[in-house]
Specification:
- The complex is a heterodimer.
- By secondary structure, chain A is of the alpha+beta class.
- Chain A contains 23 helices and 18 strands.
- The longest helix of chain A is centred in the C-terminal third of the chain and has 24 residues, at about 555-580.
- Chain A is elongated.
- By secondary structure, chain B is α+β, with helices and mostly antiparallel strands.
- Chain B has three domains: about 1-190, Immunoglobulins (Immunoglobulin-like, Sandwich); about 195-205 and about 260-330, no CATH class; about 210-260, no CATH class.
- In chain B, a hairpin with a 5-residue loop joins β5 and β6.
- Classes of the chains: A alpha+beta, B alpha+beta.
- The interface between A and B is large, with 61 and 50 residues.
């Protein structure tokens, strides 16, 4: 250290250790998003700082520090390619947090580090608000607060675990009031735009599908969304969660129509009268970094901020970066677009000029043999069913200009996207308007709370054909090949192949047959659902309805009264615990008598001095006033007997001694 | 002493003006002060203000990212701050400060003030700082013991009684976000001797004064007079007859005449100003103490019989320090 630092502003070793512990604890939730070298920075700064504490190395000089910070910036730029997104910003913060340890000399530096630690704890929530992370973060908050407390206990030069006790108590005391604030604090919209997650992978179904895309998505056991039905859950074979409609076939891949490709008249959804029974449900979607929402057929959102599209999907104008909960009503039996516009008809019929000649030929053949479009659809499905087609998660790679010819006539092994692709191609080739729909099919019903859990491996692609008088009709060619996929789900459909979640041997979903593992998983999922929808998804609407339920009306006064009342409810007990004048232990009767003895002597001008023992005082009294000497000596002897040996004596003997002592006190000689 | 003499160096305390007068009423001077809500002040410290900025930053993050868990952290830390008010207060509450002693000093030197800090109901009080506005400070934690004695050094002012003013006792434990403090007047004062000033010679210092110097030597034969009974006097010396007559307890005092003694005499410096005379007398007293001669002091209204030793020096210097102050040395 160059500057002389007052002993008082030095950092106790206990605090230093707690600071370093909390640094590593704060780093942990970010590990998956960080380049490995950041961890090395944490390790080396911790070692450096501890060696500096022991005096074996010196702190880095100013230029060394500037160099380290510059190197950190450069390394982050190299690792992420920019410095602007949320991930590089957090990485910068974490690197600065580690390097600041090398500057930790005075108490002021410790404050900077600890406050930074509190903020870094918050940054973890920008990526996920999972219940486990929240519980863990409570622990890191405790560690950071412990470091703050240890900082104010001077002279503790050994690591002490019991430092945790006070901050734990304080956080526990703070918790109830935090809950009140959490539920009452008005939620307002964002004040300005902030760095977004630029490096988070877009998850879920993409708006671009080529053979192999969905099968790779099916390797993931992540949850795509959870749905909660207000009434009965429809049979799983009816659970077709529409997310995307692919109307364009380009370069061997299907994609959706771009907004600018739509003519003005086609930009709005056709007015449609709902028909049949209504299904009401809410969907809690995990972040996808995409815009589309999933819903059953003919869905109307029951909240603002969700837009219906002309192809009867739901769309969010902003990318879904955090979990989103939306309420929907669906009428699955509603005929869609019974009147097809010319533009729409021609769009849904377009095929590339060339390619897949044998498939087109087959389509023309089957169409010619059919009496109607509907019969043609059945003929194609029958073809899939009759011929030796295999539903597999490991289809051979299709290449070349005619992938569907290869699939239909050679490999005959494919996943849902292959069948949807081939089927739609054949429909269009025969002049029947058709398109590919992508989303999820099925889902797992959680018996604990009755939600439908839809995983990524439920991703699916099917077709819609337009039939005269019926509008768009859903046709799932996969069902013709593997009915189990629709009725029972992917795991059952692939039971013979053993490829379900083959790449995730530890996924609890693979052990659904083990009863207790499955129950544990479902309970945790139910807890997560509750957490995500009630706590993480708590917003101004929920707040309003909660307050209305609790207090009838929502007024400013109500807010103020609740905050003040709950504040008092929390603070008064804490204050009583901390400051209350708890009754002192009552004095022993012998001691009370001795105090009375002292008080009498004070009146004679003889005060016992602090720390003066009874015997010494007695001698002094005798010396100062011989008239009192004998009396004082007798009393003191009686008292000492009672005080030091008396408790061993029996109850009645002790009572007698006390009486004697009291009498002796009364015998005080009067003044001459 | 009931009232403070004119020459004292009072008014060195930090809180002045209206606040000082208010403090004087609120926390009157006392030898022992137990801290309670009447005597403790609390306010956010500088780190506490930065903590507010941190809370604001977290709240803005919560709003802009619409992140409920960030809200939760902001509220948890805000409530922690509120809870810390009580904990910070509790770290001072119940402490008792006792004035123990103040050592005498020469002007320009530091006087040692001894205090005792006694814990209250709480088992531990951490990070306490005590300081006099002009003097040094002491930091102490009361853990695993009931009380602690502290020595604080304060540079003293002019001859007479020096009042160090109000003592600051502060702490920001446990979180450092709030500072809790009090200003107590422990009614302590330190004696300040005159500034020693050399004079070329001590005029009139005589070793063969006509009346000689009577020096109290117990155990010698010649009865010298009565004096008030002091602790430690032999019982044989007690004036029992007087006691029987209802007089106060007195002991007989015997004295021997020494042959060599000197008088430090106020009148030996005619024409010099008061302070200068006292300074010269002080100088000589210190000088005689190092020699092997007894010395006494004559001041207008006071006379100290010749003797030698630390007690004599203290008597002489105290008389010099308080001369003209209307007070008596003890």
């Amino acid at each position: 250290m160059k500057a002389a630092v007052g002993a008082a502003s030095l950092i106790p070793r206990n605090a230093l250790v707690w600071i370093i512990l909390s640094q590593f604890a704060l780093l942990l939730p970010h590990l998956g998003r960080l380049p490995v070298w950041v961890v090395l920075v944490y390790l080396s700064t911790a070692v450096w700082r501890l060696l500096a504490y022991q005096g074996r190395v010196s702190f880095p000089g100013r230029w060394a520090r500037v160099g380290l910070i510059g190197a950190g910036f450069a390394a982050i730029f190299l690792s992420y390619g920019n410095l602007l997104g949320l991930e590089p910003t957090v990485a910068l913060l974490l690197t600065a947090f580690a390097l600041k340890l090398l500057e930790l000399v005075k108490r002021k530096d410790a404050y900077v580090l600890i406050f930074l630690g509190y903020f870094i704890c918050v940054t973890a929530f920008l990526f996920t608000q999972d219940i486990l992370l929240v519980l863990y973060s409570l622990f890191t908050l405790l560690l950071v607060t412990t470091a703050l407390v240890a900082l104010h206990r001077p002279g503790e030069h050994r690591f002490r675990v019991d430092t945790l006790r006070l901050p734990a108590l304080m956080l526990a005391q703070a918790f109830p009031l935090m809950l009140v604030l959490f539920f009452l604090f008005p939620r307002i919209g964002p004040l300005w735009t902030v760095p977004v997650k630029s490096h988070a992978a877009r998850t879920g179904v993409s708006d671009f599908m080529k053979p192999g895309d969905i099968s790779s998505l099916s390797q993931s056991d992540e949850v795509a969304f959870r749905a909660e039905f207000e009434g009965d859950i429809p049979p799983r074979s009816e659970l077709y969660w529409r997310g995307l409609v692919f109307s364009v076939l380009d370069d061997g891949a299907w994609r959706s129509l771009r907004y600018h490709e739509l003519p003005g008249a086609e930009m709005r959804q056709q007015a449609t009268e709902p028909a049949g029974p209504e299904l009401s449900y809410s969907v809690l979607m995990m972040p996808t970094q995409q815009n589309w929402l999933y819903s059953l057929r003919y869905a109307r959102a029951r909240q603002s901020g969700v837009i219906p599209t002309p192809d009867f999907r739901l769309f969010s104008p902003v990318e879904i970066e955090d979990q989103l909960r939306y309420r929907v009503s669906s009428w699955p039996q509603t005929p869609l677009e019974t009147e097809l516009s010319d533009w729409r008809r021609s769009t849904e019929l377009v095929l590339p000029a060339t390619g897949n000649p044998r498939s087109r030929e087959l389509a023309a053949e089957l169409h010619a043999a059919s009496t109607s479009d509907a019969a043609f659809v059945d003929a194609v499905l029958a073809h899939f069913n009759r011929e030796n087609f295999v539903y597999t998660l490991q289809p051979p790679l299709l290449s070349g200009p005619d992938p569907m010819d290869q699939f239909l006539f050679q490999s005959r092994r494919g996943f849902c996207e292959h069948y949807a692709y081939a089927f739609t191609l054949m429909m269009r080739a025969a002049g029947v308007p058709a398109r590919v729909v992508a989303g999820y099919q099925g889902g797992e019903i959680n018996p604990v709370n009755g939600t439908v859990i839809v995983h990524q491996f439920d991703a699916h692609a099917w077709s819609e054909v337009w039939l005269e008088g019926q509008g768009w009709v859903r046709v799932d060619p996969t069902g013709a090949v593997s009915p189990d996929r629709i009725e029972l789900g992917l795991e059952q459909a692939l039971a013979g192949e053993g490829s379900f979640l083959a790449n995730s041997p530890l996924s609890p979903l693979r052990y659904r047959s083990v009863n207790w593992v499955n129950m544990l998983r479902l309970r945790y999922d139910a807890l997560t659902y509750r957490w995500q929808s009630w706590v993480v998804g708590f917003n101004s609407e929920e707040q309003y309805s909660l307050l209305q339920d609790l207090f009838g009306s929502v007024r400013a006064q109500t807010f103020v009264i609740i905050v003040l009342a709950s504040g008092a409810l929390v603070l008064v007990p804490v204050a009583w615990l901390l400051l209350g004048r708890h009754r002192r232990r009552p004095l022993d009767p012998a001691q009370q008598l001795y105090l009375a003895f002292c008080a009498r002597l004070v009146r004679r001008g003889l005060a016992r001095e602090r720390g003066e023992g009874p015997r010494a005082f007695c001698q002094r009294v005798a010396h100062a006033d011989p008239a009192l000497g004998r009396w004082a000596r007798d009393f003191t002897e009686g008292f000492e007997q009672l005080a030091y040996t008396g408790s061993a004596a029996g109850g009645s003997a002790r009572q007698q001694q006390l009486r004697n002592l009291r009498q002796q006190l009364q015998r005080m000689p009067g003044t001459s | 002493m009931a009232t403070a003499p004119e020459v004292t160096g009072r008014a060195t305390s930090a809180p002045r003006g209206r606040f000082g007068r208010w403090l004087e009423r609120r926390i009157p001077p006392a030898r022992s002060v137990t801290l309670d809500q009447r005597r403790i002040f609390i306010f956010p410290s500088l780190p506490g203000l930065f903590f507010f900025l941190l809370l604001l930053l977290i709240l803005l993050t919560a709003i802009n990212y619409q992140n409920n868990m960030a809200y939760a952290v902001a509220f948890l830390l805000a409530t922690l701050f509120v809870i810390a008010i009580l904990h910070t207060y509790a770290n001072l509450a119940g402490l008792t400060l006792h004035a123990v002693a103040a050592s005498a000093a020469f002007p320009g030197q530091q006087s040692e003030f001894t205090l005792r800090l006694e814990r209250g109901r709480r088992a531990a009080h951490y990070g306490l700082r005590l300081a006099w506005p002009r003097g040094g400070d002491a930091r102490v934690s009361l853990v695993d013991r009931d009380s602690v004695e502290l020595r604080l050094f304060v540079p003293v002012g002019q001859r007479g009684w020096y009042h160090p003013g109000r003592l600051l006792l502060e702490s920001s434990y446990p979180l450092g976000l709030l500072r809790c403090w009090t200003w107590v007047d422990l009614d302590l004062r330190a004696l300040v001797y005159p500034q020693p000033l050399a004079s070329p010679e001590l005029p009139g210092a005589s070793s063969d004064s006509p009346e000689g110097a009577a020096v109290a030597v117990s155990g010698s034969d010649d009865f010298y007079g009565f004096r008030e009974y002091r602790r430690g006097d032999s019982l044989r010396q007690v004036h029992w007859k007087g006691l029987a007559k209802g007089q106060a307890l007195q002991s007989k005092h015997y004295a021997a005449y020494t042959d060599r003694s000197a008088w430090l005499d106020w009148d030996a410096f005619p024409g010099l100003p008061l302070e200068q005379r006292l300074s010269h007398l002080c100088h000589w007293a210190l000088l005689f103490e190092r020699g092997d001669e007894d010395y006494g002091l004559r001041l207008p209204g006071t006379q100290i019989a010749p003797a030698r030793g630390e007690a004599q020096l203290e008597r002489v210097l105290t008389a010099l320090a308080l001369f003209g102050a209307g007070g008596q040395g003890t």
